[in-house]
């Protein structure tokens, strides 16, 4: 039984651009959603924030200055520093309550305390990401599954293009074991022979060929933005629409940091789409203003 959130979607605040910052953050939006969503739907929201927990976990295990107290903590993570810091102490693990953590977190933590842990941060990051994609692609929510699959395939293709460009050997760099990953490892043709399997591969190759890194990143984010829009085109007030909004908010936050003007433009675009993209039932009225 799917639940619609008419008032939540219809009541999103009007954008009032301010210099170099957004009207509200993804953290504040998460707190609002915690109050208003069904617990099963909010669990999906939390999953989208797991990647920030990855960043914090990796920094705890691989901080280079020798002082965990000096780590800059990404507050977008679901877990606090006090939650995660005990995980770096092997003696704490026997009594640690992992019930609130996804299984792949626990597997990664025990691997880090094993006799052969990953020694490089990039290798450890790939392991966490692999567990993350496996979790999302097994979701009972179609938007979560499809978006995760898109991102995993896209990241694998970008990895393959980098391997080809720099002529390095890194077969273990790919995430997932499927026909696409196999083709990326073996094929030498321009599109890896994937033109029929991956409909966006030509666009992705053209984006990869952009020399300016910032322009390339912007094009990648806009490609993801378009994918999100197309995937949720027929979702109006469901959790999929809210998850799509959250992912766009992540993109806007990123560009506020990299390029304030571009970030504001993206954020304005989100709200323009929210306000004009629906035909609201008569019993619901758009209410603008600040978050309650």
UniProtKB/TrEMBL annotation:
- A Pfam family found in this protein is DUF2764
Alphabetized InterPro entries for the sequence: DUF2764 (IPR024492)
**Protein name per Swiss-Prot or TrEMBL:** DUF2764 domain-containing protein
Organism (species) = Thermophagus xiamenensis
């Amino acid at each position: 039984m799917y639940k619609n959130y008419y008032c939540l979607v219809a009541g999103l605040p009007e954008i009032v651009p301010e210099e170099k910052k957004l009207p509200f953050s993804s953290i504040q939006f998460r707190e609002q959603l915690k109050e208003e969503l069904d617990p099963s739907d909010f669990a999906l929201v939390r999953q989208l924030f797991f990647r920030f927990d990855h960043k914090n976990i990796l920094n705890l295990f691989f901080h280079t200055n020798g002082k965990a107290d000096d780590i800059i903590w990404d507050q977008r993570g679901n877990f606090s520093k006090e939650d995660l810091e005990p995980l770096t102490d092997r003696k704490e693990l026997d009594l640690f309550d992992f019930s609130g953590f996804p299984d792949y977190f626990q597997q990664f933590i025990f691997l880090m305390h094993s006799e052969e842990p990953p020694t490089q941060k990039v290798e450890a990051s790939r392991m966490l990401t692999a567990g993350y994609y496996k979790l999302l692609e097994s979701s009972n929510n179609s938007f979560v599954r499809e978006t995760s699959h898109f991102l995993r395939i896209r990241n694998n293709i970008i990895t393959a293009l980098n391997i080809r460009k720099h002529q390095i050997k890194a077969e273990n760099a790919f995430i997932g074991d499927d026909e696409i990953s196999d083709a990326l490892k073996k094929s030498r043709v321009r599109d890896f022979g994937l033109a029929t399997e991956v409909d966006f591969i030509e666009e992705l190759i053209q984006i990869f060929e952009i020399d300016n890194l910032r322009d390339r990143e912007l094009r990648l984010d806009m490609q993801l933005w378009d994918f999100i829009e197309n995937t949720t085109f027929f979702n109006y007030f469901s959790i999929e629409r809210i998850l799509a909004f959250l992912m766009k908010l992540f993109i806007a936050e990123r560009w506020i940091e990299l390029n304030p003007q571009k970030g504001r433009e993206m954020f304005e675009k989100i709200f323009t789409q929210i306000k004009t993209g629906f035909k609201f039932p008569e019993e619901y009225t758009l209410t603008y203003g600040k978050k309650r």
